[in-house]
Amino acid sequence: MIDNLFQYEFLQNAFLTGIIIGVIAPFLGVFIVVRKMALITDALSHVSLSGIAASLLLGKYFAPFALLNPLYGGMAFSVIGALLIEKLRTVYKHYEELAIPIMMSFGIGLGVIFISLADGFNTDLFGYLFGSVSAVSRADLYVIILIAVLVFITIFLLYKELFLLSFDEEYAKAIGIPGNGIHLLFVITVALVIAVSMRIVGVLLVSSLMTLPVAASIRVAKSFKQAIILSVIFGEISVIGGLVSGFYLEIAPGGTIVIIAATLLLGTVLYKKFRYQKS
């Protein structure tokens, strides 16, 4: 059975990509949840879809753009969206949370326009919307590896600063940590991870992969580092389980990944409740 699973290159690409995303998405998700920015994943995923739709639209009318991987368009739009969110946070200083729904609305509206100009959904857009294992190419895998390296370098070099900014931003700034610059670098990193994760789980589900494993881990973790480790473990179980189930049961892997993650969350909630009642 295992041989059948890995006999095709696109399945090898999908599993390697899934394993990497299963690590970096929940890894960043811990910092996102602690900083109460969970909705930014939804906003940037919709902005990414606009970039992909724009890239496909340009490829329809201009031959050079047809050779360009639409994933790059999604990454570009996602990063621009992250930068605009940060700008809006400075404009609405007393209502910073408004920046995320504003960008989400803009991303959805722009995406609808591009999709309508392209005469509706096509196979490529559906793949990005719900995830498509067969669409993961070797080039996509290399891009995801590069972004994963960027994520690990960023977290390794700035772990202490990100930790302090996540739990006490005012204190962090008071001791000289450049909060704005580090936060900007962090959201750009998140934007890139969201864009590349769409290949596996899709636009509508990518936020789930960054939040559900984290929600499960914080129910049982006893420290921040333990929450990171458990989030990655839950993320990997969800991704690998979803891809294997999707292959053998011939169902959408993106949806299966999210259902497994939700089941793990439910399991931790029930476990915590049982432990509380027993004690």
From TrEMBL:
Query: What is this entry's stated membrane topology?
Result: Multi-pass membrane protein
Membrane-crossing ranges are 14-34, 69-86, 98-121, 141-159, 227-248, 254-271
Taxon lineage: Bacteria, Bacillati, Bacillota, Bacilli, Bacillales
Main subcellular localisation = membrane
Q: Which GO terms describe its biological process?
A: response to zinc ion; transmembrane transport
Q: Which SUPFAM superfamilies does the protein's record reference?
A: ABC transporter involved in vitamin B12 uptake, BtuC
PANTHER family given in the database record: ABC-TRANSPORTER METAL-BINDING PROTEIN, METAL ABC TRANSPORTER PERMEASE
Question: Per its UniProt entry, which superkingdom is the organism in?
Answer: Bacteria
Statement: the UniProt record of this protein carries the keyword Cell cycle: no
Name a single GO cellular component: ATP-binding cassette (ABC) transporter complex
Instruction: Name the family.
Output: Belongs to the ABC-3 integral membrane protein family.
Q: Note the InterPro entries from the entry.
A: ABC_BtuC-like (IPR037294), ABC_TroCD (IPR001626)
Q: Which Gene3D superfamilies match?
A: ABC transporter involved in vitamin B12 uptake, BtuC
Q: Cytoplasm: present as a keyword of the record?
A: no
Where found, per UniProt? Cell membrane; Membrane
Which keywords annotate this record?
Membrane, Transmembrane, Transmembrane helix, Transport
User: Would you tell me the protein name for this molecule?
Assistant: High-affinity zinc uptake system membrane protein znuB
